[in-house]
Amino acid sequence: MEPIYKYSEKITRYLNMNEEYNASDMHLKSGITPIIRVGSMLKSLDSVPLTSEEIFEFANQFMTDKQKKTLEDFHEVDSSFFNGEQRYRCNVYRDINGYNISIRRVMLQLSSFEKLGIPECIKPLALKKSGMILFTGPTGSGKSTTLSCIVDFLNHKVNSHIITLEDPIECIHKSNTCLISQREVGRDTVSFEKGLQAAMRQDPDVIMLGEMRSIESVSTAVSAAETGHLMLSTLHTKGCENTIDRIIDMFPAGQQNQIRVQLSMVLLGVVSQQLVPRIDVPNGRVLATEVMIASGAIKNLIRTGKTHQITSTIQTSASMGMHTMDSSLQKLYEDGIISEESVKMYSFNTDASN
After folding, report:
1. How high is the pLDDT of residue 351?
2. Which of 103, 138, 272, 306 is most buried as measured by Cβ atoms within 10 A of its Cβ?
3. Per-residue confidence at 353, pLDDT binned at 50, 70, 90?
4. Would the CA dihedral through 209, 123, 260, 350 be positive or negative?
5. What is the pLDDT of residues 154-193, one digit of tens each?
6. 264 DSSP 8-state letter
7. What's the rounded Cα separation, in Å, for the pair 177 and 143?
8. Is residue 267 exposed (0-12), middle (13-18) or buried (19+ Cβ within 10 Å)?
9. Which residues have a Cβ under 8 Å from the Cβ of 92 and sit 6 or more positions away?
10. pLDDT tens profile 246-281
11. 75: how many CB neighbours lie within 10 A of its CB?
């Protein structure tokens, strides 16, 4: 049973308006009016500024005692709450004007690969018994939604034990053909690293790690993939080539050859994604992707340190389902879904604006 919160009339009205506008985010900031993000645009909800006291009072209603202590000690904390049946994740923090909350609406109804625009070539990778699939992109690019979609896909296709480690838990999965154990960092486990280490002793088939944040989490995730588990995770990187470089560069020079070899053995694929404003749907956004499948050629480039050749290999491997971000954007433009300006703005090619 989820807790039932009774917020002030003003806060409840803002949350309801957020849902009515189908906004992805809402910002409650001291001294200004509430702001929501609809598609890629910011919109004010009211003409009356919120006070720091009002925001702090709201946060106190859903934060746990531990979260309140964290906020007091470090002046920022992650949390989550409900408004009716709608779930939100948020970050409470201080700035020069007082307390603020950045709120993101969690998608409760899971969509299909087709509706979300996730490349179909990921399905056979997700059905592998072991290996690692990484999803990358900036904050707000839909990585968590993609991971949740894949967990739901597996939950109707295979018979496995899936353990998720999330911060916080977003979509709540009910076990279907799979046994699903969802753990939240800070509530059910101390950290991603500790939760991942413990997961190895919990008889998992699939481990979904919300984010690889450190050398320890990367090392443990690679080891899990090596020992016969399917590992799904995310990184805040831009592009498949940069993702491989970022992972390798996390390690000291003396360990980089080892991680190259390990990564070349366990990696199944990388999907880099962005959400781009649509021109065919008001306030809509569409998923643009770059896909790298770990073919023999890609594995060899990783193992031998020739990652600068990955993008050109992706360009010549369309028959395997691979494509670059720029080709994905170009196709969306040719299909009349995004504008030419968006192609230039979201391109990974620095020369695209010329």
Report:
1. 61
2. 272
3. very low
4. negative
5. 999 999 999 999 987 878 899 999 999 999 888 899 999 9
6. H
7. 24
8. buried
9. 59, 63, 67, 71, 76, 77, 79, 99, 100, 101
10. 999 999 999 999 999 999 999 999 999 999 999 998
11. 12
Which residue, among 238, 200, 203, has the nearest Cα to 219 in the 3D structure? 200
Query: How many Å apart are CA 282 and CA 39, to the nearest integer?
Result: 8
Query: What DSSP string runs through 135-169?
Result: EE-STTSSHHHHHHHHHHHHTTT---EEEEEESS-
Host H or E run for residue 67: helix 65-74
Q: What is the pTM of this model?
A: 0.86
Q: Using DSSP bridges, classify how beta strands 98-105 and 86-95 pair: parallel, antiparallel or unpaired.
A: antiparallel
**Could you say which architecture CATH assigns to the domain 9-105?**
2-Layer Sandwich (3.30)
Distance CA 345, CA 184 (A): 35
Distances in Å between the Cα of 56 and the Cα atoms of 29, 30, 71, 98 are 10, 10, 11, 9
| Encoded amino acid at 149, one letter | C
Return the pLDDT at 5. 66
Which amino acid, one-letter code, is at 264? S
For helices 52-62 and 9-20, angle between their N-to-C axes, nearest 10 degrees: 80
CATH number of 113-346: 3.40.50.300
